[in-house]
Amino acid sequence: MDKLNNAEIDAAIERGKIARASEPRAASARFDTDAGRVTVELENGCVFAFPPGLVQELATATLDQLGQVQVIGNGFGLYWEALDADVAIPSLMAGLFGTQAWMARRAGQTTSPAKAAAARHNGALGGRPRKSAVV
User: Fold this and answer.
1) Parallel, antiparallel, or unpaired for β 77-80 and 85-88?
2) How far apart are CA 10 and CA 16, in angstroms?
3) Are 109 and 95 in contact (CB under 8 A)?
4) Ordered structural domains, the chain, with CATH
5) Sign of dihedral through CA atoms 56, 60, 62, 65?
6) InterPro entries, per this entry (predicted)?
7) Per-residue pLDDT tens digits for 100-127
8) Is the model's pTM score more than 0.85?
9) CA distances from residue 61 to 28, 48, 102 in whole angstroms, order as listed
């Protein structure tokens, strides 16, 4: 196995410093039962919150389980031991709350006045339009 030289070690330390200064890192986290949200305070002083039902690993968690949140990985993640669930802070902030398939199913559940009107219109026409082959 190759050993790291001093230049490689110094470069890795520098990359770590840049990451610490620029990437979102949690200083603390808690579940706010009144608001029904997980609240995360970042090291830069910003605070964000999210409803746990949006997160795949937390969707079926109890209030007691949600209250056991821990900050892990030098602030890069949150962990719930009782659920064996961990979530990356950068993913949460990017709006990635689960696997691609799970998020696609959740997106299909979204309702809006426009979606309801389109469904009524398509129903009056005999249902969803058939897909046409593009040549």
Assistant:
1) antiparallel
2) 10
3) no
4) 22-98 (3.30.2020.40)
5) negative
6) DUF2442
7) 787 777 776 666 787 778 777 777 777 6
8) no
9) 20, 20, 16
